[in-house]
Amino acid sequence: MQRASVPRLVFPDTTAIINFALVDEMPLLERLVGANGSWCATVASECDDQARKQGLPQMRDAHRIFGQPLRLQTPSEWVDFRANQTFFRQASRGVDASHAGESEMLAILAGRTIKSLVVSDESGVARRLAVLGMTAIIQSATSWEQFRVALVKGLIAEEWFWTIGGPCRTLGAGALQNCGTRNSASSGSSDRADDRPSGRDRPCELPAIPD
Q1: What distance in Å separates the CA atoms of residue 196 and residue 204, rounded to the nearest whole number?
Q2: Three-state DSSP state, 59
Q3: Pick from 73, 11, 98: nearest CA to 47
Q4: Where would I find the H helices in the chain?
Q5: For a tag site, which of 21, 140, 181, 193 has the least CB within 10 Å?
Q6: What's the pTM?
Q7: Closest C-alpha to 165, from 116, 124, 201
Q8: How far is 47 from 61, CA to CA, in rounded Å?
Q9: What values do phi and psi take at 121, rounded to 5?
Q10: Cβ 117 vs Cβ 8: under 8 Å
């Protein structure tokens, strides 16, 4: 049985999944998530849709990684879903975006008080958590920070981390469109010292979620 103190690694939209898929690192995502991942029905559907539209069939591996998606269950969760959706739509520049995935996922997490680390390159997610006052039990991170965790754990080489880390940190969702894959990068030039942030600019560890 999962210990209550261990946060779930939750993906409330496809932004981070896309970045992992763009550099062919879905196996790395699987190693980071382990048996501790969650997503919702909307994101599962959006993942299949984006896999087709962006020509990234490996995104469908997310079904194996995250398993059965969570779904809205109670009237209060549906109310929270609609409130979240209103917030995201008002904060977004994309007037046609439904923001259903993040709205559904945050309604479920908040409604069920699920201790989580929410991974998204959508900046509105962190802002919504702050508005909801849920940051004590639900924290947010970006795909860049997850690649950083992989580096700290020795799952990727430092050279590859800085190849993908710069664009990912700066541009967010879809930033890794032109980075190639780990194998293709390793066969190219390794002289990237000038592109790397100095020690003081490199991030610290992700904050621990309190018990």
Answers
A1: 15
A2: helix
A3: 11
A4: 15-22, 26-33, 41-53, 62-66, 75-91, 100-111, 123-132, 143-152, 158-171, 182-186
A5: 193
A6: 0.77
A7: 201
A8: 10
A9: -100, 15
A10: yes
Burial class from Cβ neighbours inside 10 Å (0-12, 13-18, 19+) for residue 9 reads buried
Q: What are the structure tokens assigned to 59, written together?
A: 């995104």
Q: How does residue 84 score in pLDDT terms, banded at 50, 70 and 90?
A: very high
> Residue 12, class by beta-carbon neighbours within 10 Å (0-12 exposed, 13-18 middle, 19+ buried)?
buried
Check residue 102 and give its pLDDT.
93
Task: Let me know: does 61 contact 30? Beta carbons within 8 Å.
Answer: yes
Residues 6+ positions from 24 with CB-CB distance below 8 Å: 58, 181, 182
Please give the Cα distance from 52 to 19 (Å, whole number): 15
Q: What is the pLDDT of residues 123-182, one digit of tens each?
A: 889 889 888 898 889 999 998 899 999 999 999 999 888 888 665 655 444 444 544 555
Secondary structure percentages of the chain, helix, strand, coil, to 5: 55, 5, 40
3-state class (DSSP) for residue 33: helix
For 87-129, write each residue's pLDDT tens digit.
988 877 665 678 899 999 999 999 999 999 999 998 889 889 8
